[in-house]
Amino acid sequence: MDRRDFIKLSALTAGAAGLAGCGHPDHQLIRFLPEESWIPGVATWRPSLCPLCAAGCGVMARVMEGDAEVVRNGRTGLLRMGLVKKLEGNPAHPVNRGKLCARGQAAVQIVYHPDRIRQPLKRRGERGTGEFEPVDWDEALSTLAARLKQVLDDDPAGLAWLSRPLRGGKRVLVERFLATLAAPAPVYFELFDESVLRWANRLSFGREQMPTYTLSVANYVLGLSADFLGTWNSPVAQAIGYGEFRQGRPGRRGKFVQVEPRVSQTGANADEWIPIRPGTEGALALGLAHVLLNEARRPTTAAGTAGERIEGWLQGLPEWTPEAVAEQTGIEAERIRRLARELIAHEPAVVIAGGAALAQTNGLATALAVNALNALLGCVGALGPVRFTPQPESTGLAPPHRTLRALVQKILSRPESPVKLLLLYEANPVFATPPAWQVAAALDRVPFVVSFGSFLDDTSILADLVLPDHVFLESWMDDVPESGTEPAVVSLAAPAMRPLHNTRAMPDVLLDLSRRVGGRLNEALPWKSYEELLRARFDALARRAGADADAFWKQALERGGWWSDNGGTRAAAPRHAAATTRQIRYQPAEMDGSVEEFPFHFLPYASQAFYDGTTAHLPWLQELPDVLTTAMWGSWVELNPQTAERLGIRQGDLVDVTSRHGTLQAPVILSTGIAPDVVAMPVGQGHRAFTRYASRRGANPISVLAPLEEPETGALAWAATRVQIRRAGVGRLVLFSGGLSRFPHPEER
Amino acid sequence: MEKTASRINDDLLRPVLETSPRFYLAVVLVGLVAALGFVAWGYQIWNGIGVAGISRPVFWGFYITNFVFWIGISHAGTLISAILRLANAGWRRPVTRCAEAITVFALMIGAMFPLIHLGRPWLAFWLFPYPNERGLWPNFRSPLLWDFFAINTYLLGSFLFLLLPMLPDFALVRDRARGWRQRVYGWLALGWEGTPRQWHRLETAMHIMAVLIIPVAVSVHSIVSFDFAMSPVPMWHSTIFAPYFVAGAIFSGLAALILAMALLRKLLHLEEYLRTEHFSNLGKLLLVMSLLWFYFIFAERLTVWYGNDPAEMAVFRATQSGPYAPLFWVMVFCNFLLPVPLLTIPRLRTIASTVVAALGVVVGMWLERFLIIVPALAHKFLPYSWGTYAPTWVEITITVATFAGMVLLYMLFAKLVPVISVWEWKVGRHPLAEQRAEISPAVAKTVAPEGSA
Amino acid sequence: MSRRWGMVVDLDRCTGCEACVVACRAENNVPTVGETEAARGRAIHWIRIERYWEGEFPNARIRFVPVLCQHCEAAPCEPVCPTYASYHTADGLNAQVYNRCIGTRYCANACPYTVRFFNFFHPVWEKPLHLQLNPEVSVREVGVMEKCTFCVQRIKAAELQAKAEARELRDGDVQPACAQACPADALLFGDLNDPDSRVAQLARSPRGSKLLEEVGTQPKITYLARLSWSGDGEDR
Ligand SMILES: Nc1nc2c(c(=O)[nH]1)N[C@H]1C(S)=C(S)[C@@H](COP(=O)(O)OP(=O)(O)OC[C@H]3O[C@@H](n4cnc5c(=O)[nH]c(N)nc54)[C@H](O)[C@@H]3O)O[C@H]1N2
Ligand code: SF4
Ligand code: SF4
Ligand code: SF4
Ligand code: SF4
Ligand code: SF4
To answer: Tens of pLDDT along A310-337?
Structure first.
């Protein structure tokens, strides 16, 4: 295109709305602020939702007019459109009340990422090489429709869906789509999926969901390996509560004790930080309960069902004396007694266990023990710090890790993969599963893989066809937060801006596909667009709330969703009957690798910037100094200085971290906040492919993990691997703080 | 051996009038190195100042070190020659012009560094107070502005101070040269005829300049020290800095002068003019300055150590025993442990050893500037932001190039101007040296009894 | 009465989550410099969470201290600047006029808090990342010093808004990006000259102190001490 063309095109596009909509049925349905009402330089605010973790925070997007260079139908032009400039928390949203975490703040970079997939792609080179060629949407969709028909004619069991756990409308759509086709249920996968805690809550309290911790009412918080102010559960909601807990109540400042093998961002805030032997957090909970039951004479029945689940509870946990527990955990008996006394002296007190504590083979027993302890402390319920957000619909999922493994085994079970067509959406199991699970090998054997992703990552690079989704700010968004809020919430947001590239919303592609495939699908999925589906869901909510449907919808769009105080009623929350009345016996955690050969406990943790790795492609987060180590743009291994000295390792040295399942290399950062027999490493880097900013950067701790699992839920015990370490040379650390760690401390150097 | 006036003229004017091919070769080689500096600077302007090694928190590195160093070196000349002139030290005569030339060239080079180190050197003129219709003036509270005035005043003064006593010598060359040289030197001589009136005016002007230039020189390095002392940076924010810097400047300047004289002596065969006594006398001065320097650094370090302020102690430790300790102790060796014995023990105080001591001092004083700037910036108040500094090839090239530039300017100077003031030398050895009426070299040249003597 | 903008940082609330750090970057067009330059100490963060360790394992204790420009009343960065690029506004901000900065970096040396950041190279936003840039904040070029402005564009916008609505500026009308993002409400911004503003009230707290007060910079940020627990749940 020459310059004159370009000018003509620009002139054409600047005025008319048509261009962006070319070939997009969805665009006719999206109601954007009309161009003529943009005032240059004046911002409008549009609600949206943060897609980056299960917390489901509400977002307000600041939109201002700008000129975006867009490609449509092979032509480039400038399009004057509303561009999202900044994300803030939605002040009205009950989960995050106007706040966002660091990742939520950075999420806007997803939209403008230079390596976003800008149009449908089909594979050209060998699988996994990342060589694709552009195709147009029609061709891509007809290819897929043909494939789909073929698979369905053959055997619908040959269709598989793999994504992160879905909620709200997308879950309804996908599950109905598959069910109508008689295809297997969707496979959901997420590394930090918390199914252990959900299952434990179901057993203890009849609620299969994550709890909401209302810290603002607590006087005492005992954290067990849960990074609840950083990445775990609903961190923004919890941090808001934490601020209140500390300084929001004149004359009353809560005490916070954190027990964990390595100081986390959360643990750094504790009044008292106590190291514990990994995998023994449940023993500590039982020891504390023992003291409460025996020395403080709390009735065993006070813990209700939660207590009954634990073997020996009703007898007062005779085996779990502080002395016995001290033996296991490495925490002195006297200290355990003191903690127990403090718990009851400062009610309401709450114990929060999560993260690595539950990512053990005994994770479920640990969660149950903590649940019982909380029940004994009387902190569970409408007035205590542990609450359950009413859920407008069922939250129970088939245990994700187990279903992914089943899918892999199914594919690998026969010489020719029984799965013929795999639909992949926002999941990166090749990156996030231990090598022994063989996910990559399995996916490689599926004849046709379709990805809806916006980026090529370790998994989607295996795709044969890429149908890029709009990103969140360009999409209709909805969500049903499971925790972090007291009222029930169904979040909703219209697109905050026009799509920047030639992409289409995944739900609309599924609807389009169903029209192409026809038959039963058309009846099961009667909606013309995802917006219509959402409208139908909200109409149902409105009926339940007894509100006028139009007003209800309009209000939800303005506010960013519906929540029970704003609709007038609380949604009914179904209670599940406990699945079993069996008692669980606490057993020591099983570790992979002998102490002799693999002397160190390997502790991966969700990183502040990247969580499970899904945001490693954002340069703002790559350059965000990890708050504890100040490291940027790479990964590292944390080591206790005494251990390092013993092994002749210095800060910045490269070490080999070897487990029975693999070896990785990373530079060492010394930290006095880690037990001498533990090495810790953040998850998030070490992608084989994930845009220019994250590809082949750092190392992936998951790549050395053992495939141990919690037996009842099948959840990966990602904190149960032992490793050895050896110096392997000089590494490269990028640290923001060149200084030493102590506050004006003249003795240094 | 008594030299005749014509021998003197021959000896001292030969370099100006005759040029060997070796000289051209040397000029080209040294010039190439100096030109590399401009290439590096161009590279830095084109790509951004980031190609240098400075970073947060060490925002100043080699460039400001060089700035202070060269401004320090400049104190060799004018200050020394002015003092010696006023004190009427007779042995000064062959020394003054070498020294004054060092001042002018070192200032020219030193003054480039504030421009080189700018992030946006193309806007360097915003540093200067020039009238503009926006009424925008630079900030007169900024020590960088004081630098601007101090350095420019000093440069102008030193230039005049160098130029004035050259007039009679230019006239001398004019009278001996042919062709273009005659024209050029004729122009440079500004019509010097050696009349008593002219001698009288020259003498008066030299006296006034000598009196004026001393406070200017002292103020220049005081102000350079204020660049540091006016910032609340640990170990910069010090009242001792001004005299400490001035002493250091004279110290390094003397050393540079000794080195320059030794080179000229060798290369221009001036053994009979620059004699042991000159080196010995300058050596004694150098010794005094070495002791003074040690006193200052001792006083500075002692009070910091005794005061035991945590922020200052961090810098103190970093220099005394931390990562900068090797440089620190090399500096102490070069500035004190080496020169003091060499210059104290009369048996050791030869020309060669004086030169060795001077070489040590030049190195040591460069390190001193570096050690004032870098460790302090690397260890400011909040340890979280501590850092380090390492120069890149750009800074190293520019630094080396400025040394080459100094040599080049000096070579060209020695080629264009008699480096030893011919008339002053003659005056010095004239029996009635102090009687003005008789000291006209022009007269000496024509009527002095050289043929008859 | 003229305003005097200031901040209170409650160290007892700050969790080290760094939401403020990314928020400031997004609001103020703070460039990323990439791995190589970051490794050379050239990463730019107008606000940072300093962390300090105390004690050895197992008694390790950590403190987080958010550090941004303190907008000192007696700002050492101001008198040293030869071009008035670093200067004091009537409402007490330490302002940075990027256009006037010639890059001497003198101010950065003089700042005791090391909160001034320099553009060693021309900043790069790989297309189309540049579409995110906040049009209300200028992008700084190579050779220019930059630092926290107390989100002056938000102050101006709020003042204009108040004027348009013909009313006085209210406490809380101005929220810098970092304070707006902070989940724990550890950062609070407002007018110190208004004795009733929340920030002025908190600045009078007995927990309050200034960072490096002894240097004499008269910072306008008050830090409220992180407390340790006395065992009875009372403040100490
Ligand atoms: N042909 C034509 N002519 C025009 C106009 C037009 O549209 N077309 N527009 C007119 C209008 S509206 C205007 S406002 C004028 C603008 O005309 P000018 O006022 O001349 O503005 P500029 O060309 O932007 O730059 C002025 C100079 O100031 C320098 N400068 C920037 N900051 C500083 C500082 O802090 N100190 C100093 N000392 N210098 C600084 C810049 O480097 C630049 O060299 O032009 C008018 N003339
Ligand atoms: S916690 Fe952070 S990443 Fe998760 S939804 Fe909220 S803002 Fe997004
Ligand atoms: S904190 Fe530093 S940059 Fe900010 S006003 Fe004070 S001295 Fe200047
Ligand atoms: S770097 Fe810029 S703002 Fe700082 S002193 Fe120099 S000119 Fe002034
Ligand atoms: S006040 Fe504004 S500019 Fe300053 S640190 Fe906070 S967000 Fe950044
Ligand atoms: S956002 Fe608030 S709590 Fe988080 S690091 Fe910043 S100041 Fe601390």
So the answer is: 999 999 999 999 999 999 999 999 999 9
What HEC string does A479-532 produce? ECCCCCCCCCEEEEECCCCCCCCCCCCHHHHHHHHHHHHCCHHHHHCCCCCHHH
Q: Are residues A203 and A148 in the same domain?
A: no
Mean pLDDT of chain A: 90
Of the listed ranges A207-216, A420-429, A487-496, B410-419, the one predicted with least confidence? B410-419
Evaluate whether residue C206 is within a structural domain: yes
Q: How far apart are CA A84 and CA C21, in angstroms?
A: 19
C-alpha of A111 from chain center: 19
Contact A259, A274 (CB under 8 A): yes
What does the alpha-carbon distance between residue C15 and residue A238 come to, in Å, rounded to a whole number?
A: 11
Number of domains in chain B: 1
How many structural domains comprise chain C? 1
Q: Which of A331, A366, A387 is the last residue of a domain?
A: A387
Please indicate if any CB of chain B lies within 8 Å of the CB of A651: no
Model confidence at B417: pLDDT above 90? no
Domain hosting residue B146, numbered range: 5-127+140-438
CATH number, domain of C172, equals 3.30.70.20
- The pLDDT, as a whole number, for residue C2 is 87
Asked if the structure places residue C230 within a domain, the reply is no
- Where do runs of H (alpha helix) occur along chain C? 19-27, 34-39, 106-110, 152-164, 177-181, 198-203
Ligand 3 in reach of C93 Cβ (< 6 A): no
CATH code at B342? 1.20.1630.10
In a domain, C148, yes or no: yes
Ligand 6 atom closest to A243 (CA): 3
User: Of the residues A367, A387, A407, which one is the last residue of a structural domain?
Assistant: A387
Residue nearest to atom 6 of ligand 4 (CA): C104
Cα(A464)–Cα(A449) distance, integer angstroms:
5
| pLDDT beyond 90 at B87 | no
CATH, residue A380: 3.40.228.10
Note the pLDDT tens digit of each residue in B175-228. 888 888 889 999 999 989 888 999 999 989 988 999 999 999 999 999 999 999
**pLDDT at residue number B194:** 86
In whole angstroms, how far apart are CA B376 and each of B117, B207, B379, B444? 18, 42, 5, 58
Nearest to B442 by CA among B109, B194, B128: B194
CB-CB contact of A608 with A614 (8 Å)? no
Copy the structure tokens of residue A393: 């619909």
Sheet holding A561-563, edge to edge: A477-479, A489-493, A561-563
Domain range for A253 is 196-387
In short, whether C96's Cβ falls inside 6 Å of ligand 3 is no
CB proximity A522 to B under 8 Å: no
Q: Nearest residue on chain B to C141, judged by CA atoms?
A: B120
Instruction: Find the domain containing C213 and state its range.
Output: 5-224
Cβ of B310 within 8 Å of Cβ of A745? The answer is yes
- Cα C160 to the center of its chain, rounded Å: 22
- Whether C139 contacts chain B with CB within 8 A: no
Chain pair A-B, CB pairs under 8 angstroms: 41
Beta strand ranges found along A594-652 (DSSP E): 600-606, 637-639
Output the pLDDT for position B76: 79
Phi-psi domain of A426 (left: phi exceeds 0; alpha: psi -120 through 50; beta: other):
left
Pair of tokens at residue B398: 């520019």
Question: Smallest CA–CA separation between A268 and chain C, in Å?
Answer: 5
Rg (C-alpha) for chain A, rounded Å, is: 26
Cα atoms in the Cβ-side hemisphere of radius 13 Å centred on B357: 31
Q: How many other CB atoms are found less than 10 A from the CB of residue C229?
A: 20
Token pair in block for residue B229? 């002392």
Residue B61 CA, ligand 3 centroid: distance in Å: 21
